[in-house]
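Researcher: Please predict.
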Amino acid sequence: MNQIDGFTRRARQAWRGLRARIRSADDDATFGGASTAYPSSSGHGGDARSGVGEERPAERVAVLDPEVTAAVPGDHPPATLSRRDDLTVPRGVRVAAAWSWRLLVIAVALAALLWLLTHVRYVVIPLVVALLLAALLEPAAARLRQVGVPRSLAAAIVLIGGLGAVVGILTAVVDAFIDGMPALYDNVRRGVQQIESWLKTGPLDLSQRQMDSAFERANRWLAENQSTFTAGATEAAVAVGHVIAGIFLVLFALFFFMRDGRGIWSFVTRLFPRDTRQSVYGAGDAAWRTLTSYVRATVLVAFIDAVGIGSAAYLLGLDLWFPIGALVFLAAFVPIVGATISGAVAALVALVTHGWVTALLMLGAVIVVQQVEGHLLQPLLLGRAVSVHPLAVIIAIATGAYVAGIVGALISVPLVAVVNTMIRHLNSGRQAEEQAGEAPAS
């Protein structure tokens, strides 16, 4: 019976293949297709119309029966009537169309993601900031757990210690700024007087009446736009409320990230399909290592920059050397852009307080520190683990600043580094699986 069934099945497949070839020949005759070669009883091809043996291109074969699964030799899959129509379109147009709709889908997805982030940024940004802080503080909590401290107590100790350090630094910066404010005010007033004198005696040769008229127009403009400034003050008050709420959310999330970070990530990976959970979990581990390396290296680079520029300001006799160092430390978390802005502020303070000679010296010190950072510290400390092209850094900072302002510029680069690491890890895992699948065949 098995032999009879096998013979029947082979005969049915042969009949279906013959019927498909007959239909293909009819289609060629109808649409004016190229001559088709069929095997004759002697094993040679014969043309349906001329009888001349000719090899038929694979893309012209029309397998119309869906149950026929025999592969057709060639680079193209078996053709249908719809595929026959596609073949009349130039290949370049088909490739461009395929890329176009895929790029459109990606663009729409990115636009939807940005729209969503702009509407939930007051929740997303504190969570991302908490992740960055957890990457910095979690090793300390891990050491406490290794010596027997309970998880909750270890997270609380590290959180309170870090919060105390931040409050202490901010207090010192504010005190130094308040102490140097009178001298800064006097220097600014003298600088304004020098500018006014230059406007009168310089190339512009302005009279006192012209200057008074300019000041009067400025005062009138301020009076006319008072409502705008009032609305801005109201928006600033609302923003302060969002900042305070965000600080509490950061502290709350930071505590649980340090306490149950791995358990939270395990829960997130269970949301993915079962066959992809291991790859996603490994990508998350690689991304966390990248984030930890980035935050540690950035903090160390920022500290070295602050010490270098702050020391130069102190040696040059600037009263605000400590606030300048604190500003450099904070601005260093925004790569490329932050160092430029903080250096410009340091040179401007030196110009206002001590003149252009001191300002040039301050600018030279800033340039030296930035060169050491860019060519020695960042390659040595960050390495290849978080390597991101400078163009990608600039685009990430611009996008982050557009979506979430200063905080977005701060968190954009580590996010890009983490996403880059996850993509590379997933690609390497897929390539390893493909190589493992090809190994037995070789």
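Model: The chain has three domains: 42-78, 127-270, 272-436.
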